[in-house]
Amino acid sequence: xxxxxxxxxxxxxxxxxxxxxxxxxxxxxxxxxxxxxxxxxxxxxxxxxxxxxxxxxxx
Length: 59
Hints:
Largest sheet: 3 strands, antiparallel
Number of domains: 1
Strand content: 25-35%
Order of helices and strands: EHEEH
Number of strands: 3
Number of helices: 2
Strand order of the largest sheet: 1-3-2
């Protein structure tokens, strides 16, 4: 599995990672200095359903 964290207000990054096969698995409340939450995301690599290369996710 691969894990990452991204700011909850970074909607473009959240959509990008979701398109690559990541799903939200948790949150870290007030993780960033500005009080923003961090969204923890995970993708399974061994199932064949893990992240795609960015060129495969683009329309």
